[in-house]
Every structure is written in structure tokens, then in C-alpha cells.
Amino acid sequence: MIKTTNMMKPLGILMLETRFPRIVGDIGNTDSFDYPVIFRTMQGIGSADAVTAHPDRPRVLAALKANAEALAAEGAVGLATSCGFLALYQDDLAAVSPVPVATSALLHIGRMKGKKVGVITASAKNLTPAHFEAVGAPGDTPFVGLPEDSSFAGTFLRNGLTLDRDVVEREVVAAGRDLVARHPEVDTVVLECTNLPPYKVALAAALGLPVYDVLDLLAGFYVDLSKRR
Questions:
Q1: How far is Cα 34 from Cα 175, in angstroms, rounded to an integer?
Q2: What's 154's DSSP letter?
């Protein structure tokens, strides 16, 4: 789907193959953007292929490359992905993509000089130093994950058909409070997961800290792409 405009070219988004609901704020909802986007689903590449400490890198990269080429052929001027864990492929995908690439909200971290950044992730057990280092972030960046038995995990990691927005929002706020309790030096929060932006406002209010997500990253990325054109 594309938001039509006479002047603006679309950003392409490489989507995992999922079935869960995508509300406004989620990267998979066109109403999350104020510029045109086009989506392309990577068939056979789901959440379990991305959210893992030990991915099948050749298989995932091959899917990213093929679908990146297809989106560029459709007119995409830049590419994003629907999962922050795909940070692992930032350099590899950029090397083979016909257009510029921004894989993950974790890219924020390397640009936040002087900030004490903490991360909320979809899965603490699967986020590794390699994911951070792939996007120029310190490998020891502090983070917490949503609980494995959470409503969030049931929907987004186990590909559920329903979403209880209010419950997930409470879980995200609780994770944020856990992050700053464990790491009181944290003064800025980054949301790794592309399904978390709908809860950003509530989280920022609860913590009293700035919170950055993939939509912030892509807004700046798209502006930069527009300047290049």
C-alpha cells in the first residue's frame, strides 16, 4: 500500500511474515507515517527467524536482498525493516541494496553522543552485543526485555491474532521502570522493537525521560533521502 502524492517517493519497508494486529504507531500500519511507504513481505521469514541470538544469516540476508531489490524496482528511495533485531544485517544489507538502508531503531544509539542510553527490547534473551555493534552502538548498552510470558510476547513473538493494547502498554511501562531501576544512570530510552511505538507517549510520561523509536529514526532518514534527491 502507498500513500499517494505527486511529489514524494516512497520509503520501502521489508516486512517479516506475520499475522498479528498492527495498530497505528506500529511500523506495519500506513497511518503511522506522514510520508508514502510501500511494504513487501519476506515470505517464509517470520519473527522467529529475526528475533534470535543465532539466526540463519545467509538465509535471512538472501531474503532481505531479494526483497530490497524488488522494493527499489517499485520506486522505493530507501529501505527500513519491520524488526529491530535486523540491525544485525545493517552493513551486509547496505552493501547489496540498490538504495540506502536503515534497519533498526538501535541506529539511534551511536548518534546519541553523551547520552546514557538504555533499551527496551522484545526479547532480552535474544539481544546480543553483536546486534548493538552492527549499528555502531556499544555492545554493553543496558537493556531489558518484555517478559516471555507477557501479553506482548503472546501477540508479537508467538504471532497471536489478538492484541490487548491496554495490557501491553502497562507491560511496556513496567519494563521501562525496571530498566531505570536496574540502570539509574540511563537518561534516554530507545525502543528496539517496531511494535512498541504505540506505547511511547505513556512510557515517556511514566519515566520522565525522552524515548526514541523506529518512527523517529525513519522520519529523519526520510528527510535525509529527500535532501539527496
A1: 29
A2: I
Q: List, for residues 115-150, the tens digit of each pLDDT value.
A: 999 999 999 999 999 999 999 999 999 999 999 999
Fold entry, domain 107-213: Rossmann fold (3.40.50)
Closest residue by Cα to residue 102 from 193, 228, 13? 13
Q: What count of other Cβ atoms lies within 10 Å of the Cβ of residue 98? A: 13
What is the DSSP annotation of 42-96?
-TT--HHHHSSSS--HHHHHHHHHHHHHHHHHTT-SSEEES-GGGGGGHHHHHHH
Closest CA to 215 of 47, 109, 102: 102
**pLDDT score for 227:** 87
Distances (CA, A) of 191 to 25, 155, 209, 214, 229: 12, 17, 13, 7, 29
Confidence band of 228 (pLDDT split at 50, 70, 90) = confident
Domain regions of the chain by residue span: 11-104+215-228, 107-213
Query: Distance between CA atoms of 130 and 149, rounded to whole angstroms?
Result: 25
Query: Given strand 37-41, what is the order of strands in its sheet?
Result: 37-41, 11-15, 79-81, 101-102
- β pairing state of 188-191 and 211-212: parallel
CATH number for the region 11-104+215-228 comes to: 3.40.50.1860
Fold matches, 11-104+215-228 and 107-213:
yes
